[in-house]
Automatic annotation (TrEMBL):
PANTHER family: NUCLEOTIDASE YQFW-RELATED. It holds the Pfam family NT5C. Belongs to the 5'(3')-deoxyribonucleotidase family. It comes from the Bacteria. It is an enzyme of class 3 (hydrolase). GO terms for biological process: deoxyribonucleotide catabolic process. Its EC number is 3.1.3.-. This is Nucleotidase. InterPro entries: 5'(3')-deoxyribonucleotidase, 5_3-deoxyribonucleotidase-like, HAD-like_sf, HAD_sf, Nucleotidase_putative. Signal peptide: none annotated. GO terms for molecular function: 5'-nucleotidase activity.
Amino acid sequence: MKAKRFGIDIDGTVTCPTSLIPFINQDFSLNITLDDIKKYDLSEALDIPAERFSDWFNKREPAIYASSPLAEGAKEVLLKWKEQFQLFFISARRNHLMNITERWFEEQDILYDRIELIGSHDKIKAAKQYKVDIFLEDKHDNAVSIHEELRIPVLLFNTPYNQDPIPDGVIRVDNWAQAEQWVNRWVHPTKAVSISENSY
């Protein structure tokens, strides 16, 4: 049995958080960058009526997910982790997008133990079901609620839209290299004694 179980969000975590931007710019005649998105709710962030944005997203979702680029460094880290840990990808995507999601993982050559598309941002039930020991996420309130409910560390991938304060058990990382470094210290704490000592 592998020692640790990882719960991992997909969009904005494994995929690059800029994935939607080319589609938004094209379809809404905008010229935004990731730095312009200060809120997770894109209709609010971009001042587009919620119903209009929702209709657009429902139509564009398959194309967006099929073409989403990987976050830099994600593949290299996930390939290493798959040798040591169990990987459960838990996403708010709806289940009818499973075929597109599985195909994307296959094309990216990313292995996994399970993909769970729950159709909701409430990932606590799935995280409990799979008994994950750590979670990786980009949505601020998800990260906080998962940590507070399950009392596990959550790595929050830093973006302009998740800058609210976080509790101690939620750890900001700027990229997958930092995530890997943090996990190495977490899994092998005795090797990080000198790091801990230097922090006091």
